[in-house]
User: Fold this.
Amino acid sequence: MKNFTIVANWKMNLLPLEACELVQNINMQYGDLPHNIRVLIAPPSLYLQSLAEKNRGTIKFVAQNCHEKEEGAFTGEISAQMIAASFCEYVILGHSERRLYFKENNKLVNAKARVALDAGLTPIICIGESMAEREKGKTNSVLKSQLKACLDSLHSESDIIIAYEPVWAIGTGFTPTPGQILDTHIFIKEELMKIQKRDLPVIYGGSLNDKNAKAILSCINVDGGLIGGASLSFETFSSIIDTSREISGN
Ligand code: 13P
Assistant:
């Protein structure tokens, strides 16, 4: 039976009441998920603790980022330990928006992954090529170097999730074809075997929605989805969760 990890990345969206209502709806509908389906929600950090504390159950919570140091004078930042102490178990690292707007690089993502793992969090490490890189035929070499640097010296028994998010597919309505996603996930899994000597969950993100979820999640080596826009409405997000249940046969 296939395992799926379905992650809602709300980014900087939803006001507190909207956020509460959406989580409550998801929790009511999916409070009792089969063990092979993980549903995770990444709200803005301001709401993280209260949402996670009030909604402890099958749905788990995710921070959208953390700082690479354990503590200190870093105004405006939150640490991995703070996240872990706030009933959260996961953190998204290296999202392309962080790489683009906040100039994060693979080395920093690696440092963040270390503190996250030390704090007991599972990092969801994002990798993906830009359109220019894809057009130059550099997709695999970009992914390879991102994986190598982001995972550098991370213990091969750590819980880690890889999110493949082609930058050009994020928020654009364009996605690679299921065949392209399949090929890229095969490549990523082969690289993971070389770097970590094991299989890790690889989820897909980038304009994943209720319409294309079936085709994308049916790809044999797609272990779930990282969903932005379509995770902001109960109808579309729940339809994606339902699709994952249908594909996994429960
Ligand atoms: P969209 O689903 O809005 O394209 O965003 C994907 C994403 O960046 C999830 O992290």
Q: What stands out?
A: The two ends are 9 Å apart (CA to CA). The chain has one domain: 4-248. Residues 4-248 form a domain with the TIM Barrel fold (CATH 3.20.20.70). The mean pLDDT is 97.
